[in-house]
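The protein record filed below.
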Amino acid sequence: MSINHRTLHVVTKDSSDVHGDAEVGSGVHTTARPLLLLVGALAVLVIAYVHYSLYFKSGYRGIAPERFGGLTISRAFAFNAVAGLLIAWALVVSLRAPRLATPAALAGVGFAVATLGAYVLTRTVGLLGFQDDQHVTEAIVAAVAELVALGTLGSWLAVSRHRGAGAGQSTIHRSP
């Protein structure tokens, strides 16, 4: 550890450490990073469940006004349910397999952006010939979960990028 008048460098064991065990004094609580992954996984799982429920229980299974590459809006709901389940699983597994954390978090962010984007399209101009103007609880739950996934997984990625940029060093700026 080296001390400068304005900067304190704290060397960590591993810049890809998911748990943040060696990060001392950086302002990030040691349980915050895995908690971000777990909350992100839960949010992705909620998104997946909403799409599963809409597809299998709420009649979205038969919606197919248009196709694009063999994909209909109803198949997109089924695909979304399966993809969300797999991404949530990968996020939870990444707590024990840290090398999986960044790809899983990126997949979770991409998934949340894609589902939120598809929701906005179906509410405005339509997607695959499907336009929805119903106000249902599932839409609100999914939109909130998508925002939570974006916030938590995006934060995890930002913290990880910050830690990785210093090649295992965290920088703390102190006032003179």
Q: What stands out?
A: The first strand starts at residue 2 and ends at 3. The CA atoms of residues 21 and 153 lie 19 Å apart.
